[in-house]
Amino acid sequence: LYRRHLLRPHSYPHLSALSFCSRGVNTMHASRKLRAQLTMGVDVDGRAGDGQTALCIAASEGYHTLAAALVEAGADLNLPNSQTSFTPLHSAVHAGHTEDVRVLVAAGADRSATNRRKKTALQLALSRKHTEIARVLQAKDKKEDSDETDSDESI
């Protein structure tokens, strides 16, 4: 039954097929199912009824393989949940999924984006005591600062 409905996303009009695909899927098969959904012309940034994109759901559930596949497929890294204003990076940080944070940061997610409470991903990590995630976010900041310094010196 699940497989039949997965192949007919119109059976669940309140979910985009990608969001449906990312909920509770065995990550071993998720990339294959994702590619199948994309060949059917599904919007990679479609939203579920709760305002989340598939990338937000993958990041919040710890499906870093699926998150990487969505990023590769062109999912918007900074498209926020329409209800909470959590970006995929906020979702990964909130849930404490370090590997998803690494995937999103490496892909260029905006770390300065704020949620509806005006918190950045780093502020959220610190408030939730996710020290490893805070290190990942701060390490990226330090690298960018040194890159800017290097480019200023070359002028």
Tell me what you see in this structure.
By secondary structure, the protein is mostly helical.
Range of helix content: 55-70%
Tell the overall outline.
Answer: globular
Number of helices: 9
Low-confidence sequence ranges:
1-15
Cα-based radius of gyration, to the nearest Å: 17 Å
Helix-strand string = HHHHHHHHH
Report the β-strand fraction as a percent range.
under 5%
What is the averaged pLDDT score? 78
- Distance between the amino and carboxyl termini: 63 Å
Largest β sheet strand count, sense and barrel closure = none
Alpha-beta classification: mainly alpha
Number of strands: 0
Short recap of the structure:
Helix content is 58%, strand content 0%. It is mainly alpha-helical and 155 residues long.
Q: How is the secondary structure organized here?
A:
Blueprint: H1 2-7, H2 17-22, H3 27-39, H4 54-61, H5 64-72, H6 88-95, H7 98-107, H8 121-127, H9 131-153
Helix pairs in contact: 3-5, 4-5, 4-6, 5-7, 6-7, 6-8, 7-9, 8-9
